[in-house]
Amino acid sequence: MSDPVKPQRFVSLDVFRGGTIFLMILVNTAGPGARAYEQLIHAKWIGFTLADLIFPTFLFAMGNAMSFAMRRPLPAGPYLARLLRRGAIIFALGFLMYWFPFVRHGDAGWELIPFAQTRVPGVLQRLALCYVLAGLIVRWLDWRVVLGVCGALLLGYWAILLHFGVPGDVFGKMGNAGTRFDMWLLSPGHLYKKDGGFDPEGFLGTLPAVVNVLAGYLAGLLIQRGNDLRDALRVMLMAGLACIAAAHAWEPWFPIAKKLWTSPFVLLTTGLDLLLLGWTIWIIELRGKQGGVRFFTILGRNPLAIYLFSEMFVTVLNMVPLGEDGVYDWVGIHLFQAIAPGAFGSLLCALAYTMVCWAVGWWMDRKGLILKA
């Protein structure tokens, strides 16, 4: 039986990616004045919440999109040039986003934020590095070899943490090999400022994060090459459950921790993403359900632009004083906390801001504007 639906554009992927962007903004801009719901806050260290699933899901979606983009492979030279150019642009955008708004108000008035105090690692930076490394792997290696590379990266990362971390603290924030490498490579001013010197997007954690991208790529190949989409979804279901089981089996020796991006964390998030993407494909491609599709595709077609806007616009709002707070903080505290005190008010504030970002995406979609690196 042939695949019943072969759309030129993989709508399910846009919906999947759009839902990820929606949750990413929701989590990143929790309303002030009250603590958000626990599932919308990253685990402090060991453990797992819904918020922890968002970034690896975006990496997975990127790998899935990569499999579709490579249906017509370029010659090696142009391919490498485009891969490296895109990676460099995304990395630079991430760096500039953390430097933004480039100035601050000091004792002597407005001054330039020093380059030495600007964070180098970050979300987009890890995305860029994973994109380049995964792009190099999938361009020249057969899918079976890619599976072996995934295993080698997960086991190799575990070995590095065990052998190069501080004895007795190999999985600790400051004793793990990743933190030691970041502090050797960069000055403290170039690292994350809010977690005691530990950077959750440090460079060593890129190695296991590449597996999230490769998993998305392999899932994309499975969807495209299978004769029956239902058979592909069955394989995704079994693979997803196997990854989740493997993550929990490994957990006693290697904890699940998003900030350290441990190998069991990769397996757990990959398993969940396989199930979520499979469910999305089943609903949209097989059952033909279209309710809410456009809402999420608006976000999914312009993820980079909307993410950058969401991060920078909230910074701009809080640069504008209103009472003793910035505009966003004032609205969150004096409006949403007055309407619904506590975590629900925080959620309402975040939802309202997320819808502002969605409106920007809607405008871009209506104008046919798509920002690509």
UniProtKB/TrEMBL annotation:
<feature type="transmembrane region" description="Helical">
    <location>
        <begin position="304"/>
        <end position="323"/>
    </location>
</feature>
<feature type="transmembrane region" description="Helical">
    <location>
        <begin position="265"/>
        <end position="284"/>
    </location>
</feature>
<dbReference type="InterPro" id="IPR012429">
    <property type="entry name" value="HGSNAT_cat"/>
</dbReference>
<feature type="transmembrane region" description="Helical">
    <location>
        <begin position="202"/>
        <end position="223"/>
    </location>
</feature>
<feature type="transmembrane region" description="Helical">
    <location>
        <begin position="83"/>
        <end position="100"/>
    </location>
</feature>
<feature type="transmembrane region" description="Helical">
    <location>
        <begin position="43"/>
        <end position="62"/>
    </location>
</feature>
<feature type="domain" description="Heparan-alpha-glucosaminide N-acetyltransferase catalytic">
    <location>
        <begin position="9"/>
        <end position="226"/>
    </location>
</feature>
<dbReference type="Pfam" id="PF07786">
    <property type="entry name" value="HGSNAT_cat"/>
</dbReference>
<keyword id="KW-0472">Membrane</keyword>
<feature type="transmembrane region" description="Helical">
    <location>
        <begin position="12"/>
        <end position="31"/>
    </location>
</feature>
<keyword id="KW-0812">Transmembrane</keyword>
<keyword id="KW-0614">Plasmid</keyword>
<feature type="transmembrane region" description="Helical">
    <location>
        <begin position="120"/>
        <end position="138"/>
    </location>
</feature>
<feature type="transmembrane region" description="Helical">
    <location>
        <begin position="235"/>
        <end position="253"/>
    </location>
</feature>
<keyword id="KW-1133">Transmembrane helix</keyword>
<feature type="transmembrane region" description="Helical">
    <location>
        <begin position="343"/>
        <end position="364"/>
    </location>
</feature>
<protein>
    <submittedName>
        <fullName>Heparan-alpha-glucosaminide N-acetyltransferase domain-containing protein</fullName>
    </submittedName>
</protein>
<feature type="transmembrane region" description="Helical">
    <location>
        <begin position="145"/>
        <end position="166"/>
    </location>
</feature>
